[in-house]
Records
---
Amino acid sequence: MSDTALTVPTTGSSWFTEKILMGATPREYARSLVTPFNLFAAVVLLAGAVAIIYRFIYGLGAVTNLSQVNAWGIWKGLNVITGVALGAGGYTLAAAVYILGLKEYRPVVRIGVLAGFLGYSFAVVGLLIDIGQPWRIPYPLVYSFGVTSVLFEVAWCMCLYLTVLILEFSPAVYEWLGWRGIRERTLHLSVGFVAFGVILSSMHQPSLGALFLMAPSKLHPLWYSQYLPTMFFVSSAVSGLTMVIAVSTLARWGMRDAFSPSLLARLPHLSLGLGRGAALLLFAYLFLKLQALIDGHHIDLLATGWGAWYLLEVIGFVAAPCLLMAYGSHHARLGLVRVAAFWALAGIILNRMNVSVIALNWNVADRYYPSTGEWLIAGALLMVAIVAFRWVCYRMPVLFDHPEFEAH
Amino acid sequence: MRLQRRTFLKLSVAGAASAAVAMPPPAAAQDVTDAERLGVLVDTTKCIGCRACEAACSEVNHLPEPAEAGDRAVLDTDRTPTTTAYTVVRHAGTNASGEDRFVKRQCMHCVEPACASACLVRALEKTAQGPVRYNADRCLGCRYCMVACPFGVPQFEYEKAVPYVKKCSFCIERQAQGLEPACTSICPTGALTFGNRNALIEEAKTRIYQNPDRYVHHIYGEHEVGGTSWMYITDVRFDQLGLPGGLGTAPAAGYAQDALSGVPVVMTVGPALLMGLYRFASRRDEVAGDRVAAEDHHV
Amino acid sequence: METHGILTLYSTKTIEYVVAISYLLLFIPFWRYVSAGRQNALAATRPARSLTTTMTEWFELAKDAAYHPGHAWAKLDGTTAALVGADDFAQKLVGPIHQIELPGVGTEVHQGSPAWRLHVDGKVVDMVSPVTGVVTAVNREAIDQPAVVKSDPYHQGWLLKVEGPRVAPTARGLLTGDLARRWIQQATDALRLRMTPDLGLALQDGGVPVDGLAAAIDQERWDEIAREHLLS
């Protein structure tokens, strides 16, 4: 056994005890769950669950601050649009390893794919909570096709891509379950999945930006641009690389014993490599922002309050992490690269929130602020993703290689 | 390796094929000739704020009676259509001569509507004759139409367990029976004129031409966002009426079409590009592997 | 298009071209600046050892050596001679070696029998020979400076040169390649089962306890643990 997470199962133990409880008795397992973080998580999840029940009993109006003017809130803006951006680790890492042949990053591919799967899954959950008739969510797929709509293309791509992510991650599940044959068959198709996933991502990541092309009178001119799709695409690639750095850093801090020592040993080198890629993409993104600013013919607006907010986003959360990432990459300083990764992610979150919520309807009197219920549900969905990530990593070969299977 | 490539090719062909099928031309409205389109001309110089149109609309649509039906003061509030009032009349200041002006707001039934273009299930559809129809059986409540509509028309039933979008239907059922919309048929002063859109534009131009000092020389909705079915002429500034300015003449439905047109390109070029990269990378690895193997022999 | 403020369309497009060209020109030095990190990273993280050593988790194994389960290694030199030493696991297990007692030239050593002695922290632990033969050379440096076994166990830290007709046949039974890796894995796991969690964490961070792993597990009876693993 090469990993520390799997304890030696006692003879006669059930599949449940071995696979789910990792060899502990139910009582031992329950006791091991009592940690400060888990208590905090439980509170967040409970509050979110209550809010979700409330939403479905009393309706959206009772739980949210949405209005006839502000139709999209943080569930769309944060959970869906930002969540999908943060889930870009799947296509970026998979493309790097399986298409560009950068095999040295193979140890961290599954981190990206898992984070991607969870990001997209909880984006879908967020959608189910946010839309008026969630049971009709299959409609654009099976019932009525609004082909002129960007949202239609986003719906299709997200559905297909979620399938691809499941298929890409499935070998890890099969290794956990010991299903050798189906794992082999799945691995045969992996390059096809990865390519399909890259194509899907290169369509729907930009399309999330294209959604807002429909609202030129509502999105503040500094953010409204024909380049929105391109900027969303490039920043999603940044997000993919920095998410893997960030997630692996947090995992190393919070669940180090789920790592194999060999991955821990290689993590600095891999993180630095991802950081170099992120620095270059941030550089390109920065220039895209500059082009969009010039093309938008609203440089005079930089002198306004919104202009200051825009400059904060671009200079403080794109240029600054870019420079820090470049400096950290050049001097091979892992700590700086990690800080820059979190900083760049904050910038991407800020950008997505600006475009979808903050700078949207910037000029109306009835400005939108999320309600408590909206925060609780948004937070709970994020927490479920974190807890799910942790649950999977302790059991399935994401942070370690399964000893009985050849590493793919 | 070969097996993977075959699958890869299969998927990319499938992608290209579906791309070819996926993109029919946008809004059916373009197929309809201009000549057949219907519209309404709203001449606010004739509106007296009697709100008969509101009463007629609520009756025909089985909605509750308009708010404070007899109370004129309500006209001074900042009213917009709601989920239970598809059209509202507002007091919109006075003109240069001190006469009160009122404006009726409702769905504009745009020629190339943003909402219909944005709707991912075609719950909102532009019909040939003019009305933008809402199909409640398709709507899933995503509210993208509300984001897209520059006039803020669609109203969402946030308070309901099964919420729908509500808006003026242009009395599409009445029109199917050859009748006028309820509001235009009941208007006592002729502020609302229902008819062929081109004819109405001519009528509006005639009125402006005959009274150049009275009217603002612009028909709001003739070209805004590609043209709307409901058009306004007035003797005050349009923003005083609450009609948004700066909308441009490009059809709102077309705003995202440039971005969407990239999709078939990605689906066709993408597989080939990725395939090429993959082959390049594997060839590079092969060469490197040969080199390492050769080195190993020397050790 | 609506009014554009201070810029006309012509000057806008010109500026856009200028920005795009500047971007391309700046991108190359930026790329080189960032990529320099790759060399810096390699220099910082890779230990200065020969290319024949590989990391297998916490313990290094030399690719060109064969291993005896008692944690001695042998490198064949032709068919009748071999260089012999102690592996990385052994030196990490026992800790800082105070003195190494090596057999004299001409001594017979037998595979699996004690061949040399490690003096650590007042106690003595034997290690067994990986092959059978006669000692024809000893490493004076290892005797004078036992720390070389710690710093470079597979090259400068060699201990004995053993020759004889039985060297090659006995060497055939030693562990190499995947088998050696599997064996070190099992040895690691066996150790891990005895270790406290924070010791495990320290090892995962690359930090080996100063006094040796055996002493970190059991200060009093570390030599018994060591002898268990070293098969002496």
Note: The radius of gyration of chain B is 27 Å.
---
Amino acid sequence: MRRAPGLRTRLLGFCAAALVLPLTLGISGLSGLADPAVAQAAPVRTQTVGAATVQRVDWLTDRRVALWITSPSMGTPVQVQLLLARDWNAHPEARFPALYLLDGLRATENESGWTLDAGAEEFFADKNVNVVLPIGGQSSFYSDWLTSDNGVNYQWETFLTKELPPLLESQWRTTDVRGVAGLSMGGTSAMFLAARNPGFAKYAASYSGFLTTTSLGMPQAITYAMGDAGGFDSDAMWGPPTNPAWAEHDPYLLADKLQGVSLYVSSGSGMTGPYDQAAGIPGVTTNVPGMGLEILSRLTSQSFATKLNKLGIPAQVNYRPSGTHSWPYWDFEMRQSWPQAATALGVPADKPACAPAGAIGATAASNAWLGDCITGEYNVPGGIAQDFRFGRVFYSSGGAAYPVAGRIGGGYQAAGGPAGPLGMPVGFEQGAPDGRGRFQAFERGMSYWTPQTGAHAVSGAILDEWGKQGFERGPLGYPNTDESKLPNKPGAQQGFEIGSIWYGQDAGTHAVQGRILAKYGQLGYEDSWLGFPKSSENSVKDFGKFNDFEGGAIYWSPLSGAYSVRNGPILNAWRAAGAENGRLGFPTSDEFDIPGGTQQNFQLGHITVKGDSVEVS
Amino acid sequence: MSRNCLARAAVLAAAAATTVGLLAGCSGNDSTASSAPSSVTSAPAATAPSATNLGTRAPTTSPGPAATAPPEEPQPMPNDFPGPDAPTQGAREQAYLAELETHGITSSGNGDSAVTIANYYCAAVRDGVPADEITTFVNAMAGSEQAVTGGNMSEADAGAIYIDVAKTTYCP
């Protein structure tokens, strides 16, 4: 109840509500900041026209977050995940350089290959940069396309270089010091983004990138590869091979623009390497498409490196004697190139020395899955914390030290961490009896997680009411949103799988479910004439249900549907006639205007009100 | 220069290896268990000592009159990178390169790139890769070689020669 988040997520899975909420809602703005003082400030609800805005923030762990960003240039929400810097929690005032990691031709809509197929999350856990993972963009080369194709309008270069940086700098504690690295098409992009946008990147790395786009035969090979990865048409990207757009994105032809950028170029040879299955013929892999792409990458990387050499532009060039176009090599190169990236971005390559001790040390020792420490101990409201590779450990004075990690760790961050309504952890994470969910207890509430709902904190009066109804085994199921403060009235609301709970300062705490909830939303929730719910759902005859609200009631039964009845002459007359048990039965409409008054229909009649005259028929 | 690169590469590898060693933990005990684990199991063994800062500067590929070509040999790999050395050229490779030469195709460097093109062609045919895909890729490889050697054949003409010569003198 006492939380003041900028995020209001009651819309999840709930279409009708979209019609009645102000447009400014849903911009989460500052809610993701770890600094509680900042998080409590008025969230940014307006943005300059044309600027990208964050629509939604999902905390996947305490330092991995998914942002859904409305891109003006692409006209669609774009997911960007961040792997937040090592000191994100330990130094809540600090800002960090950005390292963009770009994906390959087969980028998926859900997750970057860098976290799915390579170990970026674990590797960067102790690196002091904010890693930026654009999600999606299959076959896009992260460029601004000439026309849309396959129903998408790729404008990645504009998004990555113009729309995203101001947002990261203003809301996600990121500096304007940037590096960009990518594999395959992402390697091509890393080079041309750095070359085409002076000052954008201090560091650019291509792992198995195609570093000429206009050499004889290359446009045709790129066209073939794009057709193979999602059926995209290179004509929509840069036109036919004669179109100047091909040259304008050619790292080879742009090489002179890379003076001053720290460069890393690597490629295998296409032959069987340590991570490939041998085909039974010496040197030849079973991954023949990956062999062809890697040979192209190697040949074009050599051309590009030659050009750099002629221009006198320094680069670290790493040709591996073997290896195909596949992820284990890019994971390898991510690690190989890091010391150079760290220098270019101005951060130490290594984590500082740390050694867990005392109660935190004991907890870390008995929970080996936490991995190594990545920070020293630091103060948080209510105690002391220390961050580990796979989670955090919190110690509150007089208590024990407990780890908080994974999705519940993410939910804890979303709820403000130790400074938020939950306070410090007071127990270990454990499985719910149903085998589906997990939960953890905190000083002032609980956090619940399931694969379907994500992790959400439940606390205060809403926790009391939900608990009274049986927690996750009750009618509401698990929470599927965080609690959000209501915009126009003193109170709060939280979504659950099967309904929502409202807390109103005067009305108390009650749950609304199903069709009754849908009707409530249609009318405008607590801002409507109904106000807050005054009861949870009550059962009546014919499998009917109703909730009382401050301004009336909503009744539902399978035969009649869900309709509101407003306090006043109609409700009085209906109840005087026995309500649903009387001769009128359940309502079959909301009240509506008729000449000279209002009317409401019921299963077996109607009530009209004209002036002081109430007629039941 | 290559000695310099070797030293640097080794230091880079050491730096990487120390961090690899920290990845053994797993989060199976918590709610991240539902997310896809990352596959880093095949990362190099992590026995290298802590790296110094020596490896953190990008070396210059010394420009100068003699440095107008890329390093022709694969650069030495860090010594903990598991895998074969650079391919060696035997009689079959020499015959293939000589036959290319008689058709007017000069190979870059020591011929390793040209041999790689033949290896791709043979493997692709054996695996039943569609002919248009093979041609497209071989042409692009041929185009890249032409760019390096200063050849002036079209990529289609050059590509056809690589394919013919590989077929007749190289594929098993």
Note: The two ends of chain A are 46 Å apart (CA to CA).
